[in-house]
DNA sequence: ATCGTTTATCGGCGATAGGCGATGATGTTG
DNA sequence: CAACATCATCGCCTATCGCCGATAAACGAT
């Protein structure tokens, strides 16, 4: 929603992990994102959001997909938000989430394996 | 999608997160790996190992790079091992670690963003 | 066999994370 | 306005995490 605090530095780094030692500051930011992905519920939430039709998913559609309470889902969404993986947008009664695709792409690139090692 | 079918998977699936909702079992395995990456020290350890000359790194070279004790580094390496991200190999006095590149590639693929959404 | 070196495991401690119910903030509708 | 619905935040509890010192296990050298 109107969470004015978003990732100020979206593109933190992209050097593949296997090509050079990641600096400490970059490691902190990357670890924050990977930690957010390190939970089955959040992983499914992100996949539901990213694969949703139109690229957006309403919380009202996400919550009933789990055997968890509303506050818990809201908490997980907050973690994903603060990790810069999703963005939210309140439209009327409902809140819609969409994936931050550049962020995901950057994480994917970090894990990418160089063709020749 | 292209006709690139990967025959040998290390553990689990590889369907990009943004194309379909990830099943619960796959989410558990993926979350385990991402959780292992969700720590700055482990992220740097993996990058040091993966980018090391010859693709291998000795614990004796890893430990002094951090302001942490031996047991703590050993613990982090164990987490990476149990997540399937690295493999270890004792050769004489020292233990050498190398990255599990297929595993990393599979995680990278999961976060990959489809060209057209 | 005994020592020194390297790495892993064990036990414990403080900090963090995931879960819930209760409450609050926001928006729609009657 | 009041009543309702949706979603977020708060407080609390338990479980897990990250860290250390102490100890054990594996190996080479003496």
TrEMBL record, chains A, B:
MF GO annotations: DNA binding; DNA-binding transcription factor activity
Keyword Transcription regulation assigned: yes
Give UniProt keywords alphabetically. DNA-binding, Transcription, Transcription regulation
Q: Provide the HTH arsR-type domain boundaries.
A: 22-117
The reply to whether Transcription regulation figures as a keyword in the UniProt entry is yes
PROSITE patterns linked to this entry: HTH_ARSR_1, HTH_ARSR_2
- PANTHER family cross-referenced by the UniProt entry: ARSENICAL RESISTANCE OPERON REPRESSOR, TRANSCRIPTIONAL REGULATOR, ARSR FAMILY
What's the protein called, per UniProt?
Transcriptional regulator
Species for this entry: Catellatospora coxensis
Q: Which gene encodes it?
A: arsR_1
């Amino acid at each position: 929603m109107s969470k004015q605090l978003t990732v100020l530095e979206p593109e933190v780094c992209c050097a593949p992990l296997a090509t050079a030692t990641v600096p400490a500051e970059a490691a902190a930011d990357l670890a924050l994102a990977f930690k957010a992905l390190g939970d089955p519920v959040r992983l499914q939430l992100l996949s539901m959001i990213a694969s949703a039709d139109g690229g957006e998913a309403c919380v009202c559609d996400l919550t009933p997909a789990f055997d968890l309470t509303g506050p818990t889902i809201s908490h997980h969404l907050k973690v994903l938000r603060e990790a810069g993986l999703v963005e939210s947008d309140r439209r009327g009664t409902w809140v819609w989430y969409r994936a931050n695709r550049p962020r995901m792409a950057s994480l994917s690139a970090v894990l990418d394996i160089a063709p020749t090692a």
